[in-house]
């Protein structure tokens, strides 16, 4: 059996193409790394975008693994230089993106130019490769909110590619069972962040 730990990257700088983590994002990544240092991790795979790679490298330093980048995990399946990252936390409460998330209209958050079928296919192919490469063990997969939504949604039969909003460095756990079925064990674990804030 393979356990997949789907991790959203830490909070990145806003207003840049392919941004790195900001100070808060670094703190989030280190908090998660301290938690995962006590788990028997067998591999780390990540998106090839900088915020995911940086988060994965911090986890890798704590667990003794070198992350392997997989472009199919990239947010929305888009090139790194095609979309400026804008953190919702910096937008006003009346910004359309913020209202969409607060009201549960998550698909409104997906950029118009995203080919949803192609994105879902890339995500499915990426996770199929991860499971084929790691038929057993515990694999950390550092990627993006949209990527996590697309993969978990198809596991549970949700047609939308964006249906919940994962927190930065949240962990969602999946188990690949004998016979190939992948089941959901948890979504959006953030207790490492709550401990850090005390």
Annotation keywords:
single chain; two-stranded antiparallel sheet; globular
| Number of β-strand runs | 8
Radius of gyration: 16 Å
Taken together, the total number of domains comes to: 1
Q: What is the fold-level CATH name, i.e. the topology?
A: Rossmann fold
Name the CATH class.
Alpha Beta
How can the largest sheet be summarized? Answer: 6 strands, mixed
Shape: globular
Distance between the termini: 35 Å
Per DSSP, the total helix count is 6
Oligomer: single chain
Quick overview of this protein structure:
The protein is an alpha/beta fold. It is built from six helices and eight strands, in the order ββαβαββααβαββα.
Note down, in words, how this protein is organized.
The protein has 198 residues and is of the alpha/beta class. It has a single domain (2-197), classed as Rossmann fold, CATH 3.40.50.1240. It has 6 helices and 8 strands. The protein has helices spanning 23-36, 50-63, 96-102, 116-133, 145-156, 191-197; strands spanning 2-8, 16-17, 43-46, 68-69, 84-85, 137-143, 171-176, 182-189. The strands form 2 sheets. The chain has a 6-stranded mixed β-sheet with strand order 4-3-6-1-7-8. Helix 1 runs parallel beside helix 2 and helix 4 packs across helix 5 (145-156). The longest helix has 18 residues, at 116-133.
């Amino acid at each position: 059996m393979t356990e997949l730990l789907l991790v959203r990257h830490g909070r990145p700088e806003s207003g840049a193409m392919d941004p790195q983590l900001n100070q808060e994002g670094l703190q989030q990544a280190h908090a998660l790394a301290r938690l995962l240092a006590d788990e028997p991790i067998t591999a780390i795979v990540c998106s090839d975008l900088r915020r995911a790679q940086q988060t994965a490298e911090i986890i890798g330093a704590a667990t003794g693994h070198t992350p392997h980048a997989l472009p199919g995990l990239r947010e929305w399946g888009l090139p790194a230089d095609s979309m400026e990252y804008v953190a919702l936390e910096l937008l006003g409460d009346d910004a359309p993106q913020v209202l969409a998330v607060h009201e549960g209209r998550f698909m409104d958050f997906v950029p118009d130019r995203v080919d949803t079928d192609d994105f879902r296919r890339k995500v499915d192919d990426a996770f199929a490769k991860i499971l084929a490469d790691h038929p057993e063990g515990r694999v950390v997969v550092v990627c993006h909110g949209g990527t996590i939504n697309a993969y978990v949604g198809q596991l549970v039969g949700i047609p939308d590619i964006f249906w919940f909003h994962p927190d930065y460095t949240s962990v969602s756990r999946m188990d690949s069972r004998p016979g190939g079925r992948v089941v959901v064990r948890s979504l959006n674990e953030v207790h490492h962040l709550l401990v850090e804030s005390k």
